[in-house]
Task: structure prediction
Amino acid sequence: MVFSSLSFLYFFFPLVFLAYFVINNRTWRNSVLLVSSLLFYSWGEPKFVLMMLLSALVAYVGGLLMEKYRGQAKDKAEKTAYIATVVFLVAALFVFKYFNFTLDNICALFGVSNNFARIVLPIGISFYTFQILSYVIDLHRGQIGVQRNFADLLLYVCFFPQLIAGPIVRYQTIEREIRGRQESLDDVIAGLKRFIIGLAKKVIIANNVALAASTIYEGNAEVYGSLMYWVAALAYTLQIYFDFSGYSDMAIGLGRIFGFHFLENFDYPYISRSITEFWRRWHISLSSWFRDYIYIPLGGNRVSVGRHIFNILVVWTITGFWHGAEWNFVLWGLYYAALLLIEKYLLKNVLEKVPGLLRWVYTMFFVMLGWVIFYFTDIQQLGEAVRIMFTVPTGSFEDIVAQEAFIFYHLLYIPIGLVCMLPIAKRLPKAESIPMQIVSYGIHFALLILSITFIVSSSYNPFIYFRF
Result:
């Protein structure tokens, strides 16, 4: 089930909302959220609920053991419980997400056919595993208290708004809200508005530009030519932003409806004027996770130049690999590692002297090229796409019209996306007066109706980050 489906909008969410607010008891309200979250996850893959439950149980038991053995005389036992818990969680992620990839490459290396059964990837395993790891690591560091109620810990792990595709919510962010939050009408209204904005991003913009990108990339390259391949790169650049930021908006909005306040996951990344700035604005929950749990423990930038380069390469190799068990994701991670190192050691003083517009053009050029690497899991297809992009413009407008005339309708959403990626909404005055509030409600209601119309009229409704 996805947030942009009719089953969620017409059935699941209204029932959960009514069941939650019809009672006024914290334990029962948490129970409603827990049961509905497990139902939400099992809607598509019921057998994988067991894996999620097991991971949460291991973290729960591991946390209790760490708390029990914490102290000067028992630090070794506490550390053993901590390491065992982390090893189990990482091993489970490896088996489900990377075992097929590893086995394929070993067989290819030795020229042996791989006849082993494929292991199916559970939806959202990367997100909920990283959430559980943050709980275990922060507990080991003494930054949070142990959760003694398994149901409350499980609610943190599987809370349906952020379960499938993030944002990665850390336990310390909502530790007090699990039991001590206060719901309010203002939060419900603000949450609903945020959800509608995210839904509109997803179904109105992301889905339409996605069809433009996929049509070009899956079509005849000789017909489309280099210019349209750049258009496809731009379309995919907009798709992945409005798809993922839209989902984050919906998750943050849903969480707020039920009294939870998640941190922001995107901060208008496409206005960045450097690659470094881009990664401070894009997928903030993941970037900060790698920073706090891998980059800083490795020494961060407070080390020698050689060690710092090593740290960057390690973090970005893992970042790329986190996104998928394919070589193009590793290449994508190393690509950004190289760009960040170049900015740090070669371009830092130069970029500061370049006009802002040129810095933005430079940033978006490399970001778009990075999304091309991200898109093609087949390395040969990736090489061919890049080759076409950097050749003399070819293709025929007449041939495109004759073959895929409908693509021009979807291309109309590119300028809409370009406008909506700007922080225009931030600069609008707040709707404080009653007339302005009425206008605001009217706009959001119109967006909701328009979004539902798009959902009903089209069966094309992918979510890019579901595979992670």
User: Anything to note?
Assistant: Residues 187-467 form one domain. The two ends are 16 Å apart (CA to CA). Residues 3 and 227 are 35 Å apart (CA to CA).
